[in-house]
TrEMBL record:
Its EC number is 6.1.1.19. Residues 450-563 form the DALR anticodon binding domain. The gene is argS. This is Arginine--tRNA ligase. It catalyses: tRNA(Arg) + L-arginine + ATP = L-arginyl-tRNA(Arg) + AMP + diphosphate. One of its GO terms (molecular function) is arginine-tRNA ligase activity.
């Protein structure tokens, strides 16, 4: 039980005829200062029932509550301030972590329900840029978090491997490209051609018509168009896999847009059967005015399909294949209207499970406050950023600990981890500016700072030659350890909160708080002093290291034992 549950139960035992346990729990507050205890209960809500001043009610309750769970209960005006029994709580928390280790905070809430997570989803024939980082690492972390509470995540890389951009690419390749250039540097050359197409199209708008015609050929299975498309796709995936292996992100499915080409007719037929399709200037639409949304364009006037047609087919396929408990789309904030339309069309088709589909939006990564754009060629390559981060980490490790074993591997874990952590510590809806030098710092609220705290704890445990004993009772009652204990106790609650909000930053912020509290503890307390509390202090170090490692794992990071 957490502290609020313990306090709520103690109050409920005294006022059970007048307030429910649920209401009491909701009324409890966290005092602003540690001097005012760990949990506070305002007595105002009982004033009408007891017809007494809240101050008097608080004083009366304090006399009636007798429990060894509390060191003391103080009455301050209308508030009851509860000071938890530090020895009991620390013993319970450290004991549970000693037994459960990395499984502390696991639960079965998800009942093994499948959760497809549509994430990363780069476009074929374009490099993976910094812009793709967010969807990839947010989706990956959400998958770990949901797995911890009992769901079965299915990571889906819904590749952008279809659409008019392939018409553009084929036109550009045939006009300005060569097989040799593409084979030598596939992604860079395809990007160059894509950018050149847009530059030329500004003065030659007829190029857009040519591109549409080639995409139509591709949709109709034209041999030349299909061959070029498959070649672009294969070369792109080789490049993508290099970056995914750097990030240590893997996928259960690479079914992209093209996979749904033969599944869209069924959607169109279902819409026709329900009389939902309407003609508008030769195009076919679904009217969504009842949802206060623009019409969903299902087919263009030339018969070409759109994103939404494929996404409808994908949603139906995922429901049939995975019978999902929920289905998540980790896609930028600017697509929120698209997902509202997608859910509305599915609802119109009578698919009530569309309520279990959730768009998980996120803000932009900017540089100098400006958005990164592929079309104009202003692109920051993710691979380059990750390599630079590793170099920066290596340089700092060389300065601090030149004899570190596995230095290159640790630098990789710290450098790449720092980029992931920086992304995930930000609330996902916020935009943030990316400055690499700030990201790979060993001080401040960074990934390396949290990783270094873990390494420091492991160093203390090695020095003391300490091994946790699950059968022993470890307990502490000092003020310095208490702040760490409370954060460790809170971890299971933090995991559930992160899962409910689909918000990895909740985990990242917890990791920072634990690291800060522990470093403060380390600065104030001589952990290795030989006295009767030494083993309990070392058990706390062990418990802290276990939880910080699990925090980092849930974000997709390593926790090096030495740095």
């Amino acid at each position: 039980m957490n502290n609020k549950e313990i306090v709520a139960k103690a109050i409920f035992d005294v006022v059970k005829d007048d307030l429910s346990l649920e209401v009491i729990t909701q009324l409890l507050e966290n005092p602003k200062s540690v001097d005012h205890g760990d949990v506070a209960f305002p007595a105002f809500s009982l004033a009408k029932v007891y017809r007494k001043a809240p101050q008097q009610i608080a004083a009366d309750l304090a006399e009636k509550i007798a429990s060894e769970d509390f060191e003391k209960i103080e009455v301050v005006g209308p508030y009851l301030n509860f000071f938890m029994n530090k020895k009991m709580v620390s013993q319970a928390v450290i004991g549970q972590i000693a037994k459960e280790k990395g499984h502390y905070g696991d639960s079965t809430i998800g009942e093994k329900g499948n959760v497809p997570i549509d994430m990363s989803s780069p476009n074929i024939a374009k490099p993976i840029s910094m812009g793709h980082l967010r969807s990839t690492v947010i989706g990956n972390s959400i998958a770990f978090i949901l797995e911890k509470i009992g769901y079965a995540p299915v990571r889906i890389n819904h590749l952008g491997d279809w659409g008019t951009q392939f018409g553009k690419l084929i036109v550009a390749y045939k006009k300005w490209g060569s097989e040799e250039s593409v084979r030598n540097a596939p992604i860079n050359e395809l990007l160059r051609l894509y950018v050149q197409f847009h530059e030329e199209a500004e003065t030659q708008p007829e190029l857009e018509d040519e591109a549409r015609a080639w995409f139509k050929k591709l949709e109709e299975g034209d041999e030349e168009a299909t061959k070029l498309w498959q070649w672009f796709r294969t070369e792109s995936l080789k490049e993508f896999d290099k970056i995914y292996s750097m990030l240590e992100v893997s996928f259960d499915s690479y079914n992209g847009e093209a996979f749904y080409n033969d599944k869209m007719d069924e959607i169109v037929t279902l819409l026709e059967e329900k009389h939902l399709l309407k003609e508008n200037d030769g195009a076919e639409i679904v009217d969504l005015s009842a949802y206060d949304l623009n019409p969903a364009l299902i087919k263009k006037s030339d018969g070409a399909t759109l994103y939404i047609t494929r996404d409808l087919a994908a949603a139906l396929y995922r429901k049939r294949t995975f019978n999902f408990a929920k289905s998540l789309y980790v896609v930028g904030n600017e697509q929120s209207n698209h997902f509202k339309q997608l859910k509305a069309v599915l609802k119109e088709l009578g698919f009530d499970w569309s309520a279990d589909m959730h768009h998980i939006p996120f803000g932009l990564i900017t540089q100098g406050g400006k958005k990164l754009s592929t079309r104009k060629g202003k692109i920051v390559l993710l691979e380059e950023v990750l390599n630079e981060a590793v170099e920066l980490a290596n340089k700092q490790i060389m300065e601090k600990n030149p004899d570190l074993p596995n230095r290159e591997e640790v630098a990789r874990q710290v450098g790449i981890g720092s980029v992931i952590f920086h992304d995930l510590k930000n609330d996902r809806l916020n935009n943030f500016d990316f400055v690499l030098e700030e990201v790979v710092r060993f001080e401040g609220e960074t990934g390396p700072y949290v990783q270094y705290t873990h390494a420091r704890a492991m160093s203390i445990l090695r020095k003391a030659d300490f091994v946790i004993d699950e059968t022993k009772e470890y307990a502490l009652d000092d003020k310095d350890s208490w702040e760490v204990i409370k954060l460790l106790q809170k971890f299971p609650e933090v995991v559930i909160q992160a899962a409910e909000k689909y918000e990895p930053s909740v985990i990242a912020k917890h990791a920072i708080q634990v690291a800060q509290a522990f470093n403060k503890y380390y600065a104030h307390v001589k952990i290795l002093t030989d006295d009767e509390q030494k083993e309990s202090r070392l058990a706390l170090v062990y418990a802290m290291a276990t939880i910080i490692k699990e925090d980092l794992r849930l974000l997709g990071l390593h926790a090096p034992n030495e740095m």
